[in-house]
Design a protein that fits this description.
Blueprint lengths: L3 E7 L8 E7 L7 E11 L1 H7 L16 E9 L11 E5 L8 E5 L3 E3 L6 H4 L3 H14 L7 E4 L5 H12 L3 E6 L2 H10 L3 E4 L5 H7 L3 E6 L5 H8 E9 L13 H5 L3 E4 L7 H14 L1 H6 L6 E6 L3 H9 L6 E5 L2
Parallel strand pairs: 8-9, 8-11, 9-10, 11-12, 12-13, 14-15
Antiparallel strand pairs: 1-2, 3-4, 3-6, 3-15, 4-5, 5-7
Helix pairs in contact: 3-4, 3-9, 6-7
């Protein structure tokens, strides 16, 4: 085991160019943790928020970005019994994924689904943990319900479309181009709405309103989302690409019996994340192994080009997931 490793650090809050290669000590696993030699790391919006200075890591987490990865277990801390050195896994990380090695709770690791390679597996944890916990656990999506996901061509969106369709929902999505809308419909969306040309509120109201909306835009979308909901509908907020501040008439929550909720994944307890991992192992990993659903891949960058990967993500030109090749 080397003493040092190559990692990508945030040298100062700012744009993609503040991501720079550095040398760091290889971390050591604590109780219940494993050390992974990383093959690929997923690139996600929270990484960009952290880079910009708007999403501080928890006090016990690495200051390095990177919330998901795939790789090989190379060391196990005390109390780890379900994993062994040499196991290949994908894992939800508390941080530190933009590096050659990272530690994470063993309970947040999942096996590589049959038929998927390490590159594909690196795209699973952050996205599938987020979608499962917010769409199905918190949002309570049921078969036959109308489900709208904003940002349908993103990693979250492509995952949500596939899972919601598989479990029997009628799926609608918004996206910003004809190509992105076509990608959403190819994945199972009944109707993809180009938000540059159409009003998603009008489309959903024509269909009877959405029973559930998954939103990461916020801002002006929040009152429009409530208009797009059916009576007794639910809005789940997972990010604010626009703004968390908006003027809103809350009387409609009472008169139409609407529910507004939301969550972020990273601050949740290790136990809460372990429970999501168990749900995924039971309900979703067999679907991945069968090829029923799968990650949508956009592009790959070497670890040293993390800045270019962030620029690609923030251009909003991508469809699906972006990864960093580490080893």
């Amino acid at each position: 085991m080397p003493d040092t490793m190559t990692a990508i650090e945030i040298t100062a809050p700012g744009g993609p160019d503040v991501l720079k290669p550095t040398q760091r000590p290889v971390p050591r696993p604590g109780h219940g943790q494993v050390l992974l030699k990383i093959a690929y790391a997923g690139v996600n919006r929270p990484d960009a928020l952290q880079r910009a200075g708007n999403y501080a890591p928890p006090p016990t987490a690495s200051d390095l970005p990177g919330l998901e990865a795939s790789g090989t277990v190379v060391a196990c801390g005390p109390g780890v019994s379900d994993l062994s050195v040499g196991d290949q896994v994908c894992a939800l990380l508390p941080g530190g994924g933009y590096a050659e090695y990272a530690v994470t709770p063993a309970a947040h690791c999942l096996p590589i689904p049959h038929g998927l390679d390490l590159k594909q597996a690196a795209c699973l944890p952050e996205t599938y943990f987020t979608v499962w916990s917010n769409v199905f656990t918190r949002g309570g999506l049921q078969a036959g319900e109308r489900f709208l996901v904003h940002g349908g061509s993103s990693g979250i969106g492509t995952t949500a479309i596939q899972l919601a369709r598989h479990f029997g929902a009628r799926v609608f999505a918004t996206a910003g181009s004809a190509d992105k809308c076509a990608a959403c419909e190819a994945l199972g969306a009944e109707r993809a709405i180009n938000y540059r040309d159409e009003d998603f509120v009008t489309v959903l109201r024509t269909e009877g309103g959405a029973n559930l909306i998954l939103d990461m835009v916020g801002g002006a979308y929040i009152p429009r989302n409530l208009k797009a909901l059916a009576d007794d509908g639910r809005l789940v907020q997972i990010a604010f690409l626009q703004s968390p501040m908006v003027e809103l008439n809350f009387a409609q929550l009472m008169t139409r019996r609407l529910t507004m909720t939301g969550s972020t994944l990273r601050p949740q307890s290790d136990l809460a994340k372990a429970r999501i991992a168990n749900d995924l192992r039971t309900h979703v990993w067999p679907l991945l192994a069968a090829g029923t659903i799968g990650p949508v891949m956009d592009s790959e960058f070497p670890l040293e080009q993390a800045a270019q990967a962030h620029a690609r993500m923030e251009s909003s030109g991508h469809i699906g997931k972006i990864v960093l090749k580490v080893a």
